[in-house]
Specification:
6-stranded parallel β-sheet; alpha/beta; Rossmann fold; single chain; 282 residues
Length: 282
């Protein structure tokens, strides 16, 4: 099976490469290999490789920057998806985000729940979803992190060394997602020949404040940090950003877990695994 993976140098892309089945002939590409704002370049790449499967792990993820650069965000998050679909007659796996929801739900968002994005990032990701065919796979996820990546966990580790105290928002609720676990779910969905919309995040619920507190506790236990600092909960209103975030973006992953027949791994367990890997990286 010949597989084209876009966004190959990103957190999920690296996880997909690391966990790929032995039968997969991987063709990983990133921004240096193909400009995803250029539909003609995407078409040429797909036609040259003629892959059996395309996994689109690339995205414009600078949420705040997208508010002033929505055209570029749209070109990558929606235009590139349209070009991939047009050029590739086979199955496409596309990764999207909790930001397509408005955060007003009183329960975890199901795959078929109505979307109502609040930001340019969310809008462009929703538009990308709309280009998919019924035979494709859409996987929504949230709060992705991995060892060695650019993410909230590593930012917190750095700030906990540099700062005497941290303020972290406590009124945005969701669940973290360890990228290697997301990658394994994607490969499992491919193996099942699944189609349609699925959600994947780690088990459990957290605010960004809860996540930050856990990061410090686990990092101290592993010796990644040597001194605790105060982590204070604040409201989103006290930390204004250009893009509006959903206040509640927990994803209901039961459809995914029921199909794959696998268990839930709590986000704190995966956080501990990631931090051990981070320590090993030095």
């Amino acid at each position: 099976m010949k597989v084209l993976i876009t966004g190959a140098k990103g957190q999920l892309g690296r996880g997909l490469i690391a966990s790929a089945p032995a039968t997969a002939e991987l063709h990983p590409v990133d921004i240096d290999d193909c400009d995803l704002t250029d539909a003609e370049a995407i078409t040429a790449l797909v036609r040259e490789l003629a892959p059996d499967l395309v996994i689109n792990a690339a995205a414009y993820t600078a949420v705040d920057k997208a508010e002033e650069d929505e055209d570029t965000a749209r070109a990558i998050n929606a235009g590139a998806v349209a070009a991939l679909v047009a050029a590739h007659p086979g199955k496409l796996v596309h990764v999207s985000t909790d930001f397509v929801f408005d955060g007003t739900s009183s329960r975890a968002y199901r795959p078929d729940d109505p979307r109502n994005p609040l930001s340019a990032y969310g809008r462009t990701k929703a538009e990308g979803e709309d280009h998919l065919r019924d035979t494709d796979i859409l996987v929504r996820t949230a709060w992705v992190y991995t060892a060695g990546g650019a993410n909230f966990v590593r930012t917190m580790l750095r700030l906990m060394v540099e700062k005497p105290a941290l303020n972290v928002v406590t009124d945005q609720i969701g669940a973290p997602t360890w990228a290697p676990g997301l990658a394994q779910t994607i490969w499992a969905l491919v193996k099942k020949d699944a189609y349609g919309t699925f959600h994947h995040s780690d088990a459990g619920v957290a605010s960004w404040y809860d996540f930050a507190v856990a990061i410090q506790e686990e990092a101290l236990a592993l010796g990644l940090l040597h001194k605790a600092i105060p982590v204070r909960p604040i409201q989103t209103s006290a930390y204004p950003t250009p893009a509006k975030r959903p206040a509640f973006s927990l994803l209901d992953c039961s459809k995914t877990r029921d199909l794959l027949g696998d268990g839930y791994t709590h986000w704190r367990t995966n956080l501990r695994t990631m931090l051990k890997e981070e320590k090993a990286l030095g």
